[in-house]
Amino acid sequence: MSELTRVQCVLAVPDLEKSVAFYCNQLGFTLHFEVEGWAFLSRDQFD
What we know:
With 47 residues, the chain is α+β, with helices and mostly antiparallel strands. Helix content is 21%, strand content 40%. The radius of gyration is 11 Å and the shape is elongated. The model has no long low-confidence stretch (mean pLDDT 83).
């Protein structure tokens, strides 16, 4: 089975707050910062 080692996402979606909550709470991402209409997330070894 493959192992996820690095991931970075930039979300641009209609409901940013809901999407960020899903990525962080369900998928284990960390929110680094948000600017109007954008959220910058990462997971695991990506800095």
